[in-house]
Design goal:
Elements lengths: L2 E17 L4 E15 L4 E5 L2 E5 L5 E17 L9 E4 L5 H14 L5 H20 L6 H13 L7 H7 L4 H12 L3 H19 L7 H7 L5 H12 L3 H6 L17
Antiparallel strand pairs: 1-5, 2-3, 2-4, 2-5, 4-6
Helix pairs in contact: 1-2, 3-6, 7-8
Length: 261
């Protein structure tokens, strides 16, 4: 769900010992160069203007002869179609560096409702990491289905199963292809989008601003009780509890609604 859990910054550093995280770690090199050593024996060399993504629970260490500086972000459940560590280059204008820098600012900020901007920056950073890797594109069937889901996920009347069966591809083949290329099933992808919208609404809403039925409807659920069950499966707490405590974070993993498609 591209939720930023932590943002830190290394001043000039030469070695970071072996460690791992429960979530994805995204490290943008702001100066110098170095190498990540992974527990599987792989090595990822990086330099200024590049970012490295390390998957959850992957032991790694970071070292440099000349020293490096970086901004590192811990993110829960980013929408990556990748399972292993990878390297990406920033563009010539440094858009990715700007996003990481702003994430650091808003993570430390006491600006009212800064969580809303931080949520948007999580989306932006995850998108940059996917787009700038540039080594993998979605096939046309998967791209079409993703577009259909993004255009309709907030509509309570949208039936994903029916939409898939109307496409000119075998249902099971389309589902397998989507999971292969996206890393999640079509339903998991739609649920992520719905939960992301719910998180934003619950983080910024004031007491009495919306009923839970209205929040559910805006996120694509006709039934508020069902919405609450799906939300709790993803976040570990009810929507009302999440709305009261703005500091709660998403859990690892993606819960699913009903029978997956």
């Amino acid at each position: 769900m591209n939720t930023i859990l932590f943002v830190g910054e290394h001043p000039r550093t030469f070695d970071v010992c072996w460690h791992c995280h429960d979530h994805w770690e995204l490290v943008y090199c702001t100066g110098g160069e170095g190498v990540f050593q992974l527990e599987n024996g792989a090595a990822i060399r990086y330099r200024q203007g590049q970012a490295v993504a390390i998957p959850p629970r992957e032991h790694h260490k970071n070292s440099s002869r000349e020293g490096f500086t970086n901004i590192h972000v811990t993110m829960a459940d980013p929408a990556f179609p990748f399972r292993s560590a990878f390297l990406v280059d920033d563009d010539a204008e440094g858009h990715m560096r700007i996003a990481f820098t702003e994430a650091k600012f808003y993570y430390l900020s006491d600006i009212k409702k800064h969580e809303l901007v931080l949520s948007a920056l999580g989306e932006l950073i995850a998108s940059y990491m996917v787009v700038y890797r540039g080594q993998r594109e979605f096939s046309q069937p998967v791209a079409d289905l993703r577009d259909t889901i993004r255009q309709n996920y907030a509509d309570p009347d949208f039936a994903l199963d029916e939409a898939m069966r109307r496409m000119p591809f075998h249902y099971d083949y389309l589902r397998r292809l989507f999971r292969q290329e996206s890393g999640v099933t079509p339903l998991e992808y739609m649920t992520r989008l719905r939960m992301q919208k719910a998180e934003v609404l619950l983080r910024v809403m004031q007491a009495g601003e919306y009923t839970m039925s209205e929040v559910a409807s805006q996120c694509g659920y006709a039934n508020a009780l069902y919405f609450s069950r799906v939300f709790k499966k993803n976040y570990g707490v009810s929507p009302s509890a999440f709305g009261r405590d703005k500091t709660l974070h998403v859990q690892d993993g993606t819960g699913e609604e009903e029978k997956d498609v």
